[in-house]
Amino acid sequence: MITIFSIEFDDSTNQVIDWLDYYSATWKRINSEDIENEIEIIVKTHDSNQLDKKNTVWFRKWRKTTDEINHETKDVYIELNKGIEFEQFSNYLFHCHSNGYWLNHPNNLAYDKITQLNRAKTIGIEIPPTLFTNSKTELLEFIKKYTAIITKPLNASILVQSRGKNLINYTRIVDKQEINQLEEYFYPSLFQKFIDKEFEIRSFYLEGNFYSMAIFSQNDERTKIDFRHYNFEKPNRNVSYQLPKEIEQKLSRLMKVLRINSGSLDLIKAKSGEYIFLEVNPLGQFGMTSTPCNYFLEKKIAQLLINKTNEKQKNNK
To answer: Are residues 72 and 94 in the same domain?
Structure first.
């Protein structure tokens, strides 16, 4: 049995399931929304079979506890408590499958960008000069040293709906004039040296294998700083790309150190020739790499899950 933890509207999950059906695999999908919807969920602590499931598990996505909390409601404390209860039950649900093979485990996905960068650096991977600070003085010294700097969120970008519009935080340039307008101490933020790039690279990692794509975003003012600031009228050119073996080996070591066996990595190929690591998102999109490059990653994920299931069934005989 293959168990998939996901969210309702995730097309990548749907496409992998299509391949599982093609191969006549047995699967079960649990969406985080199911917990609060009209679906029967029964967990018996006295049933040892439920606590010792040797399933193959794919942790694709899961709702965060604060995603649906409306802080303007009078029942905010009830909502917060529901969020805590949701998180506790989710952890137990994952525990019920703890003896199986996991394609990414939720316990190993919480590394922030600074931790990722520090661990990459110890392995010998190039990273951008980085400052995390709340000090105007420190930030002025940083921009004095590197001239051009950017800021980005510590966590993954979030979508905020406000006044009928969708707002999302991107990587962007910070100039000295803007810094001079800051208070002496501000909310702690992440800053990095701006890297003059030849192109960006999105690489999907799956159990030791890399499937990479070059994104030529540097010639469009809209996508120059962050390719995710998509230009739908004139999309960036995306082509399949082979990372040097030495870079792949170092990145593979990083993924093992982070205990992540699947994820989307972002890098920059600098004009100086260096490959510079930016971050890895274990739950990141892979369809955007799969389709343009004909990697058929959805098929590869389905085959991996089936192979791991067959291995467990063989070992249990």
So the answer is: yes
Both tokens of 230, joined, read 């998509």
The 8-class DSSP code of residue 126 comes to B
296, with CB counted inside 10 A (0-12, 13-18, 19+), is: middle
For residue 93, pLDDT beyond 60: yes
- Looking at residue 214, its amino acid is A
Give the chain's domain count.
3
Contacts of residue 166, Cβ cutoff 8 Å, sequence gap at least 6: 159, 160
Same domain, residue pair 182 and 208: no
Q: Based on the fold, state whether residues 167 and 124 are members of the same structural domain.
A: no
Residue range 6-22: average pLDDT?
95
Between strands 197-206 and 262-270, the pairing is antiparallel
Domain that includes residue 60, residue range: 2-107+299-315
- CA-wise closest residue to 32 among 67, 78, 80: 67
125, 80 Cβ separation under 8 angstroms: no
pTM for the model: 0.85
Cα Rg for the chain, rounded, in angstroms?
22
Q: Which residues contact 21 (CB under 8 A, 6 or more apart)?
A: none
Four-point Cα dihedral 89, 103, 255, 241, nearest 10: -130
Angle at 268 between CA 188 and CA 289, to 5 degrees: 105
Per-residue pLDDT of 148-187, as tens digits, reads 999 988 876 555 555 666 556 677 888 899 999 999 999 9
What confidence tens digit (pLDDT) does each residue in 175-222 have? 899 999 999 999 999 999 999 999 999 999 999 999 999 998 777 555
Distances (CA, A) of 245 to 208, 249, 252: 12, 6, 10
